[in-house]
Amino acid sequence: MSARRIVVAIDGPAGAGKSTIARRIAARMGFLYIDTGAMYRAVALWAQRLGTSLDDHLNLEQLAIAADIELRSNPLGVVLNGEDITELIRNPEISQAASKASAIPGVRRALVEKQRAMGAVTSIVMEGRDIGTVVFPDAEIKIFLDAAAEVRARRRLEELQAKGQGGLTLEAVLKDINERDTRDRTRGEAPLMQAPDAEYVDSTENSIEQVEERILALVRARTSNGKELHK
Hey, what CATH class is 7-219 in? Predict the structure, then answer.
């Protein structure tokens, strides 16, 4: 591991491929992968179990503060208060709830504090909506990963179908994507936007491998020794 801690911040809208790319970059560089969306999903799941309304901002903030969230890299997983919730947080209902919870200022503040604590101890690849603008504005490498809404919806539908979640249509997933885009870009607290110094990467017509190699080239160019790191 490099003696200097490196932060790779990957932001972008839902379905742009941030999680897939971030995981691959982290594995190639030997960095810790942090899925910030999973943290909001964890809070949303806990709120659902407790019957806490998404309109109850004060109690949601308290849940975010109290949540013991662990992001595991080998194997990849999410642990909430000692329970593996990796699969439980990947359904559309939790996705919608997490998107709404992420717009609550107190919830964001609580989880941003946890995210910064993770980045203080090791080199990381962190993906989300406001990593390069709010969480780590001084990150060495900032990427804004984007793709056409229709392409993002198709990718999301294929992902859900692969997990056995049938019954969804492309139109329904596209509607959800567009609603999340609007909510993410117009929220008052840390809206989704490209940082001025972020590299814009459009994955609409590029393969995962092509996007990965482009971002890896940027990472290597800006790290101290320019060499691939290993765990």
Answer: alpha beta
- CB atoms inside a 10 Å sphere around CB 189: 14
Q: Is the dihedral of CA 43, 49, 55, 58 positive or negative?
A: negative
Report whether 146 contacts 200 (CB < 8 A). yes
Q: Is the peptide bond before 75 cis (omega within 30 degrees of 0)?
A: yes
How is residue 27 written in tokens? 């594995």
DSSP label of 142: E
Residues 90-143 pLDDT 10s: 888 998 899 899 889 999 999 999 999 988 888 999 998 889 999 999 999 999
The amino acid at residue 140 is E
The Cβ of residue 172 has, within 10 Å, a number of other Cβ atoms equal to 13
Q: Count other C-beta atoms under 10 Å from residue 58's C-beta.
A: 9
Q: What is the pLDDT of residue 132?
A: 95
